[in-house]
Design goal:
The chain has 251 residues and is α/β, with parallel strands linked by helices. It folds into two domains: 132 residues, 3-Layer(aba) Sandwich (Rossmann fold), CATH 3.40.50; 106 residues, Rossmann fold, CATH 3.40.50. The chain has nine helices and eight strands. The strands form two sheets. The protein has a four-stranded parallel sheet with strand order 2-1-3-4, with helices on both faces. It has a four-stranded parallel sheet with strand order 6-5-7-8, with helices on both faces. GO terms for molecular function: amino-acid racemase activity; hydantoin racemase activity. It catalyses: a D-5-monosubstituted hydantoin = a L-5-monosubstituted hydantoin; D-5-benzylhydantoin = L-5-benzylhydantoin; D-5-isobutylhydantoin = L-5-isobutylhydantoin.
C-alpha cells in the first residue's frame, strides 16, 4: 500500500517533519511518501492562504495520479484545503487531517477541545466542525497564539505554549481528549499527552490510519454524484494546461 502525504504549504522542513511522523505510524508494508506544491504560501493561516494552497493540493493529486500506484492521499493541513476538489480527481481515498482527527477523538471521548496555533485559524476550525457535524462534540477551540512557522523556528517556546493551552483545556473544559489543530504539530503528540495526561489526537497520524483502513477494506472515493470526475473543459491563462483534462489519468 502506498499513501501520499500532501503538505499544502511550501515549507520543506515542515513537509519533512510531517513525513517522519507519518512514517513512524505506518503499518509494516505501507509505503509513505510526501510532497508539497511548487508554489504557494509558506504557511496556511487564513482563508486566502487556504484558497491558494487548495490549487496546489489539486496539482499534487494530479501528479500522483500521473505517477500511478498511489492508494490514498492525506491532505496534511488542519483547514483541509481543497479536500473535496482533491476527491473529485481520484478514486483513491483522500483524507483531511481535521476530519480524521474529529472522527477519532469521538471514538475515545464524548467531548474534546482543539488546541491550535492562532485565534483566527480557530475560527476556521469552528467552520469545519459545523460542516462535518462535530460541533456538539467540541467544547472549546483554544489558540496558543503562535504563528505556524514558530513550530519550526522556535520549537521549545511553541511546545510550552501548546502544553499550557492543553492543560487549561483539561482543567477547564470538561473534556476527555485534545485534538491538535495544526499539521505542524504532528511530531508532538506523545510528548504533549505525557505532559497533560489525556489522549491527544493529531490529524496526520489519524488520517494515515484511516487511509490504511479504507484501502484495506477496498473502499474508494465514489464517482457517483458530486465527487464524480470533473468534466473536461477549456481553462484559460495560467490554468490552460488543465484544458480538456481526461480523468482518470491512469487505470
Amino acid at each position: 500500500m502506498h499513501i501520499r502525504i500532501i503538505n499544502p504549504n511550501t515549507t520543506v522542513s515542515m513537509t519533512a517533519a510531517i513525513y517522519h511522523a507519518a512514517q513512524q505510524r505506518a503499518t509494516l508494508g505501507t509505503t509513505v511518501s510526501a510532497s508539497q506544491p511548487e508554489a504557494g504560501p509558506v504557511s496556511i493561516e487564513s482563508h486566502f492562504d487556504e484558497v491558494i494552497s487548495a490549487v496546489g493540493v489539486a496539482e499534487e493529486v494530479l501528479k500522483g495520479e500521473r505517477e500511478g500506484g498511489i492508494d490514498a492521499y492525506v491532505v496534511a493541513c488542519f483547514g483541509d484545503p481543497g479536500l473535496l476538489a482533491a476527491r473529485e480527481l481520484t478514486r483513491a481515498p483522500v483524507i483531511g487531517i481535521a476530519e480524521a482527527a474529529f472522527h477519532l477523538a469521538t471514538l475515545i471521548s464524548t467531548r474534546f477541545s482543539i488546541v491550535t496555533t492562532l485565534g483566527r485559524t480557530g475560527i476556521i476550525a469552528e467552520h469545519l466542525l459545523q460542516q462535518y457535524g462535530f460541533s456538539h462534540h467540541c467544547r472549546r477551540i483554544r489558540a496558543a497564539e503562535i504563528p505556524v512557522l514558530d513550530l519550526e523556528h522556535h520549537p521549545e517556546m511553541a511546545f510550552v505554549r501548546i502544553v499550557e493551552e492543553c492543560c487549561r483545556a483539561r482543567d477547564e473544559d470538561g473534556i476527555g481528549a485534545i485534538v491538535l489543530g495544526c499539521g505542524g504539530m504532528a511530531n508532538l503528540t506523545q510528548e504533549i499527552s505525557r505532559e497533560v495526561g489525556l489522549p491527544v489526537v493529531e490529524g496526520v497520524s489519524a488520517a494515515l490510519k484511516l487511509a490504511e483502513s479504507l484501502v484495506s477494506l477496498g473502499l474508494y472515493t465514489s464517482k457517483y454524484g458530486d465527487l464524480a470526475y470533473p468534466r473536461p473543459k477549456a481553462f484559460t491563462g495560467k490554468f490552460s494546461g488543465l484544458s480538456d483534462l481526461e480523468l482518470p489519468l491512469k487505470s
